[in-house]
Prior knowledge:
By secondary structure, the chain is α/β, with parallel strands linked by helices. It has helices at residues 12-22, 29-42, 47-54, 58-71, 91-103, 114-121, 125-134, 153-165, 235-248, 268-276, 295-307, 315-331, 342-361; strands at residues 171-187, 206-219, 225-230, 254-259, 280-284.
Amino acid sequence: MSNFAPALVVSDVQRALLETLSKSQTASHREVQRAQVLLMAAEGLASEWIARVVGISPATVRSWRARFSEEGLAHLGDVRPGRGRKPVIPQSIVDQIVELTRNSKPEGHTHWSVRTMAAKVGVSPAQVQRIWAARDLKPHLVDSFKLSNDPQFEEKLIDVVGLYLNPPEKAIVLCMDEKSSIQALDRTQPSLPMTKGRAETMTHDYKRNGTTTLFAALDVATGTVIGSCLPKHRHEEFLTFLKTIDKEVPAGMDIHLILDNYATHKHPAIKAWLTKNPRFQLHFTPTSSSWLNLVERWFRELTDKALRRGAFHSVPDLITKIEEYLTAHNTEPKPLVWTATAASILKQVARGRVALETIKQN
């Protein structure tokens, strides 16, 4: 059975209205479902496939498609008496689930699960899941954030984003940071390889064999990374890495270095060296704004692809694996493209500050 069918003809205006309704927090559950069905039908998906995803009968999907083809959105909110499956959950229960999810927590728990919510309101976990999915509610997830209190936040933000969007000519823009205290962790027993029906296994405990600090500078234009593992995280090591960058970057090019406000970066010895090497220009990100430094994304990739599941018998072994990953990355580098403007970020930050102030006042 094919998962595709002739696409339902939907105009741009109708699509916009359906997309708004499919994410509505106030519309009835049935209306949200119908909007989702029509949007998927417009993508050319078969009625049987849509029915399985949304949790309704194929006959209902075909009925909604046919009615839309005849009447458009004129009667989208109407429910024809005697046609289709009757709503299993009263709208009042749906509203209660949404209200509890958004504005309360179960006693003794940090968040609702489908089972605790189902027990609370007297429906099945599957019904709770469908209601949450229709409204894009995900109480099991939490995003971390912190608004910067840097008095020069706006000035620093505009400076850094300006380098991303409009890099200067005859210059290289590098995002630099240190990944400190990378541990050489070795498993207490050998890992077992992946076989059919079983994932690769490794012991949950490990032995610590020392640490290293990775200094890395990401070239925004090309995605290549200059990296060096050094024993500690002091201004002496930072100065050594600056000299490494100086050797790697061709003469005649200015070097714009984006980095955080760590005290090591502002040490008198560093300032003295920079005075003698004027092609280096440092651009500091606002405090509590590591997301503004693109090299952090590369650090996450390094952790996921080379460190988290690794077993390292010694610090030299760890350094060798990091250097191997660095070499492999630079063989086929991909630039990390920045698209957000400073103005759009400042608007989001302003909304965040208003929201925090509202919570404090309440």
